[in-house]
């Protein structure tokens, strides 16, 4: 499987995948670092908002991931594959959506998937800028679930 199915992906998530492909235009494969740049570019998405809230400094994640990119242009294959870590991140995004009871894959699920694939470049960058899976999941669930109503006597 060279391209994960995006059938249940939201429009924003599909745009993140397209942006990742764009960022990888000089690479041999699409990696988690390209996926992270796509998430950051889709600034209206919950993933970008979560990163902005949790990162150690404004824009520190983007700067860190750009510094980690391989800047040596390579011959891009005609059918550019996803890296193993990128495929795994996207699989984990589906699992995170199911865990949260969602029938769609949003940018927030992709972010959580990227964070769970700890061997990927993106997870390393995110951890170095203060964005952890636990903090991101807590923030996302708080935003998605909204303020909880506390019943008297509960």
Report on the architecture of this protein:
- Residues 6-146 form the Clp R domain.
- Keywords: Repeat.
- This is Clp R domain-containing protein.
- By secondary structure, the chain is mainly alpha-helical.
- It has one domain: Double Clp-N motif (Orthogonal Bundle).
- 57% of the residues lie in helices and 0% in strands.
- The chain contains eight helices and no strands.
- It has helices spanning 11-23, 32-41, 46-54, 60-68, 84-99, 107-116, 121-128, 133-145.
- Helix 5 (84-99) crosses helix 6.
- The chain starts with 10 loop residues before the first helix and ends in a 9-residue tail after the last helix.
Main attributes?
154 residues; mainly alpha; Double Clp-N motif; 8 helices; Clp_N_dom_sf
Q: How large is the share of residues in beta strands?
A: under 5%
Taking the sheet with the most strands, its summary is:
none
Task: Count up the domains.
Answer: 1
* Shape verdict: globular
Keywords: Repeat
Protein name: Clp R domain-containing protein
Pfam families: Clp_N (PF02861)
Care to give the gist of this entry?
The chain is an all-alpha fold and 154 residues long. The protein has eight helices and no strands.
């Amino acid at each position: 499987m060279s391209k994960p199915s995006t059938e249940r992906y939201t429009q924003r998530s599909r745009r993140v995948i397209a942006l990742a492909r764009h960022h990888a235009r000089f690479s041999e494969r699409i990696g988690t670092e390209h996926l992270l740049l796509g998430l950051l570019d889709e600034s209206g998405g919950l993933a970008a908002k979560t990163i902005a809230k949790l990162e150690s400094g404004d824009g520190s994640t983007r700067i860190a991931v750009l510094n980690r990119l391989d800047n040596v242009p390579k011959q891009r294959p005609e059918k550019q594959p996803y890296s193993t870590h990128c495929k795994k991140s996207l699989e984990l995004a589906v699992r995170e959506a199911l865990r949260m009871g969602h029938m769609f894959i949003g940018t927030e699920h992709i972010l959580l998937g990227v964070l769970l694939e700890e061997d990927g470049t993106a997870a390393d960058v995110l951890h170095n800028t203060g964005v952890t899976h636990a903090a991101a999941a807590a923030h996302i669930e708080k935003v998605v679930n909204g303020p909880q109503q506390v019943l008297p006597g509960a």
